Amino acid sequence: MLLAVDLQSDEPIYTQICDQIIEGMAKRELLPGDKLPSVRSLGADIGINFHTVNKAYQILKQGGFIQIHRQKGVVIHPDGVQKADEQFLAKLQSKLKPLIAESVVRSVTEEEWIKISKAIFEDLKGLN
């Protein structure tokens, strides 16, 4: 899996890294136990400061997506990621609410929203 960061984006680089690794997991391009590049190696590969990569890895570690071992390096969590619980569903709702609100203001219909959401789901699950 090759990460592609957009240095001109308003989205912080560490967030782009997190999002792309999680997307790789969703698409099963990254499987439990797969090794990720070291902080320094990934930073050098994509031309960014290793502290930025470290921040992304720490966020992924806190979320239970990866494990960081002194000897094994960085790996996708070998036991997989914890299933969605009430706390995750509440977080999901709070993140979606502003997007849905903006969509309503911009006259996106519920049907369009569902169609877009379904297409993204199918893409990530490899159903398209």
UniProtKB/TrEMBL annotation:
Query: Where in this chain does the record put each HTH gntR-type domain?
Result: 11-79
Give the molecular function GO annotations: DNA binding; DNA-binding transcription factor activity
UniProt keywords, alphabetically: DNA-binding, Transcription, Transcription regulation
Q: Which SUPFAM superfamilies match?
A: Winged helix' DNA-binding domain
Write down what this protein is called. Answer: GntR family transcriptional regulator
Q: Which domain of life is it from?
A: Bacteria
Q: Does S-adenosyl-L-methionine appear among the keywords?
A: no
Gene3D superfamilies named among the record's database cross-references: Winged helix-like DNA-binding domain superfamily/Winged helix DNA-binding domain
The family database entries (InterPro entries) matched by this protein are listed as: Tscrpt_reg_HTH_GntR (IPR000524), WH-like_DNA-bd_sf (IPR036388), WH_DNA-bd_sf (IPR036390)
Q: Does the keyword Coiled coil apply?
A: no
Output the PROSITE patterns linked to this UniProt entry: HTH_GNTR
